[in-house]
Amino acid sequence: MTKTENKGLKSTFIGIIVSALLAVLKALGGIFGNSYALIADAIESTADIFTSSMLWLGLKWASKPADEDHPYGHGKAEALIAIGIGAALAIAAFVIGKESIHNIITPHKTPKPYTLIILLVVILTKEVLYRYVKKTGHETNSDAIKADAFHHRSDAITSAAAFVGISIALIGGKGYEVADDYAALFAGVIILINVYHIVRPAIGELLDEDLDPALNERVRELAAEVKGVKNVEKCHTRKMGILNHADLHIWVDGGLSVTEGHTIAHAVKDHIQHVLPQFAEVMIHIEPDGHHH
User: Fold this and answer.
1) Checking DSSP bridges between strand 231-240 and strand 279-288, what pairing results, if any?
2) Three-class secondary structure of residue 141 per DSSP
3) pLDDT of residue 292
4) Can you tell me the distance from the alpha carbon of 75 to that of 80, in angstroms, rounded to the nearest whole number?
5) 109 vs 33: CA distance, rounded Å
6) CA 103, CA 89: separation in Å to the nearest integer?
7) pTM, two decimal places
8) Cβ of 52: how many Cβ atoms within 10 Å?
């Protein structure tokens, strides 16, 4: 397992431990403090534990080396896990929304003031965790880890919504208890928005969508810098787990030998991977100058 993969597993493990502690804190606070928004928050944190555990298994699976049945490696497992995280979040949002509506039409007690202190601790903790996991996601180029970071941010947002709702209920007094439930309902909507941001890139990876046009252009520029390359006709890039793959068609002098063309192709691959180490593989098709299909 590489250093990059270990970094991803470490951030995921920290996320599981922190989410577990916060889920217990919020559940107890919600039950004894008469706050469904806090209970909804606990549900979200419990979903965090489940999805982070899925991510842990997914990263272990995706890091397996290529074998006879999977010659391109197991990187796509990471995208499948990201979609699984999105599905779990969507279910959590549905449960929270359903219970919020039930509580809005059912009279209940005003939340206790100390629930606000619990929420402040949660918001600060989850925001710090979000920034740490997001940084790890960018360093490892992992959509699943970035999805996990969004999950922590959504938890911070649901806690902030609960804080506002409970504050309104406490300040408004009798008749304003439902503010707590409306806050929980709002949290469910925020979670669904996060689901889209998590699932959309993962589906793109599974469908082998081209990566960022600016990255494609950078790969073209690097290929063109190599001596002997007359033109870069095609350049396609795709993501495979935490790493990228590129396919290029380059033109070389038609009078060169096969060996000389092969040497240029290797020079192009080496140059791209030296400047952009996130490219695990660069496949190059050689065309004689001026002849293309």
Assistant:
1) unpaired
2) coil
3) 47
4) 9
5) 9
6) 21
7) 0.66
8) 24
